[in-house]
Amino acid sequence: PVFWIVIPAAGVGSRMGADKPKQYLELAGRTVIERTLDCFLGHPRIAGIVVAISADDPFWPVLECAADPRIVRAPGGRERVDSVRSALDLLLPSAAPADWVLVHDAARPLLAGDDLQRLIDALQDDPVGGILATPARDTMKRVDGSGAIDCTVDRSTLWHALTPQMFRFGLLRECLARAAEAGWTLTDEASAIEAAGMHPRVVEGRADNLKITRPEDMLYAQWLLSQRT
Ligand code: CTP
Ligand code: MG
Question: Are the C-beta atoms of residues 3 and 102 closer than 8 Å to each other?
């Protein structure tokens, strides 16, 4: 099978509140987005990588990886899902419907090679696809609109959705288009597949595949990196 990578990287990083989007902040001497791309550039079975970048982004073109022939740039969109759809459109001439696409947040630079490999190995013969995920750790409550607890939700049924999320190119493109048409708000790819009545699989991944979101995440990510090398 053929594997394509889609990296949504057109967010502004409002919760980080830095002077540039968080994907361009440096993490132990290398930008977040370069570290994210490195997770895939070393993999032998990747056919190509599409990064969704804002039209007016001055930070991407000056990076060395912007000139890498394995990486192409698609225009970013208003929401993450729009950026992903834009990247998939760019793949349309090259990708076959049955090819796999792995969508991975630019803001997740700590994806470990063994997690990526486990996801691919677990799903490459699957009819639908699935996602890296990690089991919920805390006791989980359903809370009503007034701030009062309705009930405790059985934690063993709850997982945190991570990325990469791996689906067939044709199916993913179709389901995302259908969701857009219906006006649904999606925060990941799997929800578009679920909405079409299918059941993506979860593949347990490391909890330290964190999405850098707030300033303290940078400190945690730096520490995790220092432990890995
Ligand atoms: N993203 C994107 N296009 C958008 C919004 C987000 O490609 N219109 C990307 C981000 O660059 C990030 C990933 O989607 O890699 C996950 O989004 P998030 O963590 O929410 O990043 P931001 O939207 O940049 O952060 P914030 O929500 O705090 O503004
Ligand atoms: Mg966002």
Answer: yes
Residue 179 has what pLDDT? 96
In the predicted structure, residue 229 carries a pLDDT above the cut 90 = no
d(CA 78, CA 156): 35
**Atom 19 (ligand 1) nearest CA:** 213
| Ligand 1 cavity residues, CB under 6 Å | 8-15, 21, 23, 52, 76-80, 83, 105-107, 211, 213
Give the domain range for residue 178.
3-228
- Total domains, the chain: 1
Neighbours of ion ligand 2 (CB under 5 A): 11
* Predicted confidence (pLDDT) at residue 131 exceeds the cutoff of 80: yes
Sorted by sequence, the CB contacts under 8 Å of residue 14 that are 6+ apart come out as: none
Q: Is the pTM of this model over 0.90?
A: yes
User: CATH number of the domain that 164 lies in?
Assistant: 3.90.550.10
Give the whole-angstrom CA distance, residue 145 versus residue 117.
41
Distance 125 CA to ligand 1 centre (A): 30
How confident is the prediction for the chain on average, in pLDDT? 97
For residues 8 and 198, is the Cβ–Cβ distance under 8 A?
Answer: no
